[in-house]
Description:
The structure holds 2 protein chains of 2 kinds. By secondary structure, chain A is mainly beta. Helices cover 5% and strands 55% of the residues of chain A. Chain A has a 22-stranded antiparallel beta barrel. In chain A, strands 1, 2, 4, 5 and 11 form a 5-stranded antiparallel β-sheet that branches. Chain A has a 5-stranded mixed β-sheet with strand order 19-24-25-22-23. By secondary structure, chain B is mainly beta. Chain B has a 5-stranded mixed β-sheet with strand order 3-9-8-5-6. Chain B has a 5-stranded antiparallel β-sheet with strand order 11-10-13-19-17. In chain B, strands 12-21-20-16-18 form a 5-stranded mixed β-sheet. Chain B is globular, with a radius of gyration of 23 Å. Classes of the chains: A mainly beta, B mainly beta. At the A-B interface, strand 31, strand 32, strand 33, strand 35 and strand 42 of A face helix 1, strand 1, strand 2, helix 3 and strand 9 of B.
Amino acid sequence: MRSLPLLLLLLPTLASAQGEEKPITKLPKVKKNVEAIYPAPALRDRVEATVVLELDIDADGYVSAADVVSSSTTAETVTSSTGVVSVLPSRSSTIANYGFDQAATVAGSRLEFEPAEAEGEKVPVRIQYTFRFKLPPLPPPPPPTIAGTDAPPPPDRPKVMNFTGVMRARGTRSLVPGVVVTIFRESEDGQTEGYEAVSGDDGVFNFYDLEPGEWKILAEADGYFPFRTTEEVTAGQVTEVVYFIEKGTYNPYDVLVEAERVKKEVNRRTLEIKEITKIAGTLGDPIQVVENLPGVARSQQGSGQIIVRGSGPNDTGVFINGVDIPLIYHFGGLRSVIPADVIESIDFFPGNYSVYYGRKTGGIFDAKIKRLKPDAVHGSLDVSLLDTSLYLEVPIGENAAIAIAGRRSYIDLVLKAVLPEDGNVSLTSAPVYYDFQILANWRPAPSHDLQLTVLGSDDIIELLFENPASFSTQSRSGNLNAGTNFFRAIAEYRYTPSSEFNNQLSFSAGQDNINFTFGDQFRFLLQNNQLQLRERAEWKFADAFTLAGGIDGLMRIADVEVLLPRPPSEGQGGQNVGNPDIDDVLFTKVEGQRNFLVAPYVEATIVPFEGLTLVPGLRLDYWELLDEVSLDPRLVARYQLLPEWTVKGGIGLVHQDGEPQSADPIFGNPDIGLQRAIHYSVGAEWTPEPYLKFDMVLFYKALDNLVSPTNATVVRDGKTVPLNVDNGGRGTVYGMELFLEHKFNNNLRGWLTYTLSRASRIDSGETEPRLFDFDQTHILAVVASYVFPENWEFGIRWRIVSGNPTTPFLTRPDVSPVVNTDLGTYVPIVGAVNSDRLPLFHQLDVRVDKTWIFDAWKFAAYLSLVNAYNRTNVEGFTFEFDYTRRNPQQGLPIYPILGVRGDF
Amino acid sequence: MRSVLRFGPIVGLLGLAACTGDFTPYNEIDRLRVLAISADKPWLAEGDSTRIEALVVPVGDNTVTYNWSWCPLTQGSSKGYECAFTRDELQQQVDEATMMPGLLRVPPFELGTSSTAVYAYNLPAAFFSSVCSAISMGGEIPDFVELPACDGTFPITIRLTVTSNGESLTAVKEIYVLYEDLPLNTNPTINDLKVKRAEDYPEPTSVTESPLLKLKRGVDYDLEVVVPLDADGNPSQAEPYLYTPPDGSGEKTIKETLVFTWFIEGGEMDRARTGYIDPDVPIDEARRNIWTTPKKVDYERTTARMFVVIQDNRKGTTWFARTFELED
């Protein structure tokens, strides 16, 4: 039916002979022809094109440069089976959108010629070369009984489908819709007979009434290599095939960093998991990528803290699908509790977030669980030097799917190998972490979508210190047991009856457990049972007005037993070192303590005129334990000045309770109140190219009523007791965030982020500000990945960050040290809080990935080199017994993580 | 919620590498040190006196000057245990509280400049009980005062500042004065220190001050402290006492812990500190150690001193000092 997918013409117009005065005596002649690939969308839309290239051919006949001189397209005029003459519409009228230019340039650059000659000498030349993309004839129409893209059959007799197939992506086996499948053969009379079909959403394509015999198959789709094969059609039988077509590249950046959702926030970074699992230095953990975003400080190695815009780790909310979870990282901070396989994306808001979120004065971090597509059985196995994870996804019918995942660490094996058998410490139960996830999706109808997620995490370590006295003269035991686990079961129902209305309802239940004991001297036992309800409805009354409202309800019932020294507050790190009396402990026990938190909220999206979007919101929070009510008004505005330019700004009030112990009568103050922050930010976005984006934000955060330690005493129940904390703290945070992003283009992707900021606090009873514990003046991160041919990928991450403030210890000769002879230890005399700073941190991480693609699965090997140039970064100091000398507490030296992964 | 679920101690195991190689160990004496302070009566009943002495080791043969004081209320460890009030300030508050100036004389805080000092419990027990009553009854306590534990005992801080060769060092120790009728605690004792090594001392040999025991340089010697044992082989001076756990789980009788700190002038001690903890760590584990005597290249002097300080967990302290002759 069609003879050639395209015609290729060599125009004998010689543009010039480059760098050569002699006359050309022999024109270049094509030695190796390369077919340009007909862009699949153009095939689908029946668009033809002519692309004229200018080729620079070197003296060896190779093409050194190929540039488009001109190009033009024409939509085909056809006669349909009904006899009506029509012009097929072009979905996208520009030639660039169909990819003709690119296809011609790629093919042109691969041509090889017999070199041009001038007086018998081979010379470089520049020529014009035309690719003419000509459509094949339309295939005969398929029978009318077949739905989808196949053409209708003639009315006189039913057609019989005798060839059916499914298009899947090589490696992932995902269904591939929109593949143009051409089946053709040379007939006996020398004519070419051919037919076309396009795979539907289910990847299926069909052909009808094919004559028995051998047929050639050509399958083409955007972003995939052309697929060619031969099939035998047998009379009276249906030929069933599954074709695996290979992506042009299996780069992870098919999805852009910033989701193309309509932006309503001043700052929302949406990280798509596919793009971030291979970032160097993060060990494939998507959560760790957040640290490389603007406004996020570097946390101390292994601490697993998230510090956003000068707020403490406890001030940033961590959610999964909007549900509060108790911890992000397993111990050691190397791995998050949720593997990348089950996450779809991560929304991160450094400030000025929607009223959907609350109770946190810092940032918001919300991981979105993957929504399963019931197309095939998928799975993966990832084995690294750190842990092994397994993921399996199974469709259940056409509308449902279920997935399970799990992970286990090897830290126990490493520590067993590292710790000497005759050492001072032995492992009663080696440290190990587990996590598991169960996912299920059911879409009984297009407007109804149910999702169930169950996830949990378990960390445990038990140590026995053989010589407890080596810790302290007061040690009475060497048994250290530490375990933490939690689970959440989340049920979500999304109802979307129309584009004007949608409703999301989620209910979750879960439990958190902590079990920490050190002999009978220290104890922290917690069991927290938690129920959370979230309801959000959104009505679009008009294009210019959308109203959303909902409820964020949370109920916690906790049993807590604590026997510990008073924990240091922010800004008290140095002073804590000075209290070595481990018998100076406090005890509190609470059973069935209920804390009911509920917050109705309403938010509007108003577009008063084109380009301007206003999002005012109001959130009312009730805090049962503190017996308080707070009202948080917030406003965000975005204005698109030009197509490439958007300015934005926001102001919002947020409230937050203190850390759990702050309201305890023993460790804290039962009369403690809410903390408050006002977020201000203004900024601009510039998108000069679709793949290039600049984003700058200036922010200011005013903090007051902060829970702050105090030495004051108070009379409670007729007894003078320490007040411990009050709401006398204040603080300010201000700075600038810069984000330069190069989205995936020309095989390169990456971003540069720079944050300049200052965070300070004024403690209760003080008048002078001091630096915040995590104040980092300069934070610069460069993240880049380049995808090479043959599915090689190379990535780097380089960071340079100001050191954290520290509180110095005063020693000889300035002050005389003090030794507590009862405790057998020296007591440091502390200087001004956070008046010193750790040295500058900088580190390069690199990662290399190689992926092998097979029909039904992919296999990848990766090598991650953390701290590639072995920088000695200082995370703190250790001191000689009398604090006269100190040594740097170094971060991890260079270390490799090698892993392999299979996906099917 | 989230912050309390972290495992800070484990971070240290996994994440950070601290370089402590060139630090002098706590138990190695290479500078002016106050290794211990002992009161012959660590607990005092009203009217008692206690003699206080310090185990001070200067550098070389430098002389040491002493300055002793006591303090009933301090500002806590973060302020170096500085006294919360001067004696005159405290006297003024006492006078105001009693409304009869001079009725109760607060003794001077200074305890002299001799190498030993004597603290006399000559304030009435009612003074301390009234301070505790003030706390428990909601009296106003300045915020710079560290609240004392009031459980029938009241901690008195003994403060010593020593100066030698222009260098000074401050040391503190608590003794308890009782304002309720409680049994007194006594100091532990050490009877002997023995050395054993197959080549030169195949049997445990007592270390005497005269003549000095001769030890080879750069070799390991087993050390054994001899303490009084009861019929069950447990240290008889680990006194049983009534312990009230802070978690309110009810009083119980437990034995004192005994901690041995092994100070040396040269060489390396296998464990700087050992402890007897009933019933987890037996006394035989706590009273033994291994000393690698110093090599000449590291320690040129021909004699080396060792101090074994033994402390119970109720302020009882004593020590045992011996000198060894080192042979090449």
